[in-house]
Amino acid sequence: MKKITTNSYEIRFSNDGYDYLNSLLSKKSYSKLFVIVDENTDKYCLEYFKSKTSLKPNVLKIKSGEKYKNLETCKEVWNNLTEMDADRMTLIINLGGGVITDMGGFIASTFKRGLDFINIPTTLLSMVDASIGSKTGINLNLLKNQIGLFSDPQLVIIDTNYLKTLNKREIKSGYAEIIKHCIISNSFFDDLIDRSSIHYNEDIIYNSIQLKNKIVSMDKLENNIRKNLNFGHTIGHAIESFYLNKEDKLLHGEAISIGMICESFISYKKTNFSLEIANKIKTHLNSIYPKINFNKNDLKEILSLMKYDKKNYLNNIRFSLLKEVGKVEIDVEIDEKLIMDSFDFYSN
Ligand SMILES: NC(=O)c1ccc[n+]([C@@H]2O[C@H](COP(=O)([O-])OP(=O)(O)OC[C@H]3O[C@@H](n4cnc5c(N)ncnc54)[C@H](O)[C@@H]3O)[C@@H](O)[C@H]2O)c1
Ligand SMILES: [Zn+2]
Q: Strand, helix or coil at 219?
């Protein structure tokens, strides 16, 4: 049976996950059970979850979308928990994508100084990334994940059955994190990089989770090796923030894909990364994600958003770059000109 043990909690798969949840419930005698869902996971995932556990939790439904990953939504949920007499022995179950696992974890960890929570990720992105690694949080205005804390769940259940109702665009968004994991660890890289469409299976998902967990176990607070996971994210996060209040949304993975293309080029310039492989990464990702045109003003705004990034220190923009596939150099300072040049590489 597949399972992954982290420093403080278990990541269990499919039916074994629900069995483990039942055993947790019988051990811990929680006073109340709440499940946080959004509009879509309420519709597509909740009944299935109930059928797997025979639980009858209180359901707290929030609006779906990154736009609602904010303090107003937290306040609404904290008020609901208060009205429904949640006490310190309450368990929160986050059933949803990265928005729900990030925000639900934050809501649970701050309510009455911290309630237990478990994550049941229902998107590919939250399975391989967001639900693992103990980062919880919300956005502040345009700033992604500006407020939050490191907090461990009691359990994560990975059940790929939830993916059946997820649309193709969201699946692709999650795939960006899978390919990032493959690039920075040199696992499955050769199997994937020459394809012109996405490809994943249970082994690739398992490998992705295992890699993320391994890195986080060594450096939960992101002082060193965890920064490897930020490949593609300095530029990617700024692009994501730029789109946060626009009509046309860009999904996390779509933004990170552009970030990975730009940062592969920056790696070529700064850390001797192979241009040939940078081009392969670009070709692969461009065959999957829509091409975006950025004008000069967009780039200016994106650059200024980059300066707010939590990865920075003393106002310098810092990157996690590739030395080679499977090898990352962290904390590389890059000047604005090279960042601009990397967008030319992306566009051409
Ligand atoms: N904590 C971390 O380490 C970490 C890492 C990566 C990303 N994140 C965060 O994750 C978020 C993005 O996650 P996401 O892409 O899962 O977004 P999301 O939670 O918004 O989910 C995407 C969409 O899919 C819908 N959905 C979810 N599960 C579904 C299902 N099974 N069937 C049908 N529809 C379903 C949701 O309602 C939503 O509309 C961002 O906020 C990002 O900052 C966090
Ligand atoms: Zn990411």
A: coil
